[in-house]
Design brief:
The protein has 193 residues and is α/β, with parallel strands linked by helices. Strands 1, 2, 3, 4, 5, 6 and 7 form a seven-stranded mixed sheet that branches. It contains five helices and seven strands, in the order βαβαββαβββαα. It binds inosinic acid (IMP). Belongs to the HAM1 NTPase family.
Length: 193
């Protein structure tokens, strides 16, 4: 089965391809010739995921799925949440986002945080959504070289390593995106059988 994952984030592509396996041919935005930035102007993860997927379906005519992810921090009333990508403003920068979050968390005792992912899927003229969540806590300084985004400062519940210190397979087993993609995979397999 061939389907577009509406992203050009090579790290996300790698994570998702690893979960979906060889049964699925996952093509990126670049591979369908889409170079423009996709709209994501909603104030909910689900709205943004569907905005991106619908844009691709409308302009490129391919079945696709898109994800939107946010890091929700208890001590910051759920921020950066849906604005995680632009937390430190434009142009987007993982480094500046992490720096700002570390600064805003410097005095906070409650370190609880959770990643949430919504995947929007469009096949033909039908739409579905899949959700995944990973709970954990924020540490006070970066640790680890793997992953991307906020991974170096997020320690998942029950682990003494950050997401950036886990292998891709370990991260996928417990991560927000891994969980949502496994639901997507089960659905796609049932649909195509
Ligand atoms: P988006 O889903 O690409 O809009 O991601 C929003 C923000 O969350 C960006 O700053 C990403 O770098 C970050 N992000 C998305 N997924 C992950 C993840 O799995 N780990 C850490 N940060 C992530």
């Amino acid at each position: 089965m061939k389907i577009c994952f509406a992203t050009n984030n090579s790290k996300k592509l790698k994570e998702v391809r690893a979960v979906l396996g060889k049964e699925f041919e996952i093509v990126s935005l670049e591979e369908i010739g889409c170079k423009e930035e996709l709209p994501e102007t909603g104030d909910k993860l689900e709205d943004n995921a569907f905005q991106k997927a619908r844009y691709v379906k409308t302009h490129y005519g391919v079945d696709c799925f898109a994800d939107d992810t946010g890091l929700e921090v208890d001590a910051l009333d759920g921020a950066p949440g849906v604005y995680s990508g632009r937390y430190a403003g434009e142009p987007r920068s993982d480094d500046r986002n992490v720096d700002l979050l570390l600064k805003n968390m410097a005095e906070k005792k409650d370190r609880k945080a959770a990643f949430r992912t919504v995947i929007a899927l469009i096949i033909g003229d039908e739409e579905w959504a899949f959700n995944g969540k990973a709970e954990g806590e924020l540490i006070g300084a970066r640790s680890g070289e793997g992953g991307f985004g906020y991974d170096p400062i997020f320690k998942p519940l029950g682990y003494d390593k950050t997401f950036a210190e886990l292998s891709l397979e370990e991260k996928n087993t417990i991560s927000h995106r891994g969980k949502a993609v496994r639901l997507l995979a089960t659905f796609l397999k049932e649909k195509s059988s």
